[in-house]
Amino acid sequence: MAPPPREGSPPSPDEPRADRATPQAGAENAGSPPAEEAGAGPAAGAARRVRTRQRRAIAWIAVVLLLGMWGTWAGPRWNPQPMRTLIVPETSDTSIKGAAPTAPRGAYQVRTTTVSVPTRDGSAIPATLKIPLGVQGLVPGMVFVHGTGTSSHQAFAEETDVIASTGIATLVPQKRTNDYSTTHRDYTALARDYEDSFGYLLGSQGVDPRRSGLYAVSEGCYMGPIIAASNPRVSYVVMVSAPVLPIRTQGALAADSYMRNLGAPRQIIDVIAKIVGQQFEDFAYIDFDVSEYQRRMTMPVLMVYGTNDMSMPMVQAPLTLRRDLEKAGNTALTVRYYKGASHGLKVGKVLLIPPMQDVSDWVNGLPSTAHAKPRVAGARPVQAYMGGKVAPAPKLASGMSIVLIVATGLLLVSSAGLLSLAGMLRRRGRRLIDLRGCGRWLHSASAGICLACVVFVAYIVTLAYYATSYQRNSVVVQGGWLLCQATALSAAWLFVGVPFRWREAPGRLSWPARATMAIGLAGQAVLFLSLAYWGLYPSLG
Question: Among 32, 380, 388, 428, which is most exposed with the fewest C-beta within 10 angstroms?
Answer without folding.
Answer: 428
